[in-house]
């Protein structure tokens, strides 16, 4: 087996890691690369300072420092690209893990719902709802019957009662009219005080003669 085959494990298929294990490995790789970044950035600053130090005094040393600085910058750029790839892969794996858990939960819920509906029949449910509705109607009828007043007929005709009331009022009116006709107009009462007498000298003689004649006729009629 070639060295590359041994390196990538082509000779024997290795067991695939779990998503959690793969995410953990990616986190560890990111940590190592970040430390390598910090190291390279420090080396770049050192070589830059060395090139400035030698400057025109020792051009050969200054050029060597700039060459090393250039290599460190290339390595740093490669690490930046690798970190971006690892970060993208880690996020994709985390999303895949989340989606897997969501799908598993939804699948479990679907199986639980199926188990719950296994003992249900839509026809039985319809029959049950119809029975409930029927019992509610019966309960309403019972409530109406209980709340109905006892001892008072609902079949009484109000028109007949109104006609009877009008007849009674007419009878009372007729009686009042009859009482008024029998008694007639009320005459003024006779005054109880005695009228003053008129002196004889002031009464005409003709009136006295008439009174005497009337008294005579009354006495003859009595006898």
TrEMBL record:
A GO cellular component annotated for this chain's UniProt record is:
multivesicular body membrane
Listed GO MF terms:
ATPase binding; protein homodimerization activity
Query: Per the record's keyword annotation, is Iron included, yes or no?
Result: no
Task: Write out the annotated subcellular location.
Answer: Late endosome membrane
Composition bias of kind Low complexity appears in 185-207
The protein's matches in InterPro entries, at most eight in alphabetical order, are given as: Snf7_fam (IPR005024)
Q: Which UniProt keywords apply?
A: Coiled coil, Endosome, Protein transport, Transport
| Topology with respect to the bilayer | Peripheral membrane protein
In residue numbers, the region (Disordered) covers 1-22, 170-223
Q: Name one GO biological process term.
A: late endosome to lysosome transport
Q: Which family does it belong to?
A: Belongs to the SNF7 family.
PANTHER family with a match to the protein in the record: CHARGED MULTIVESICULAR BODY PROTEIN, CHARGED MULTIVESICULAR BODY PROTEIN 4A
Record-given protein name: Charged multivesicular body protein 4A
Q: Recall the taxonomic lineage recorded for the source organism.
A: Eukaryota, Metazoa, Chordata, Craniata, Vertebrata
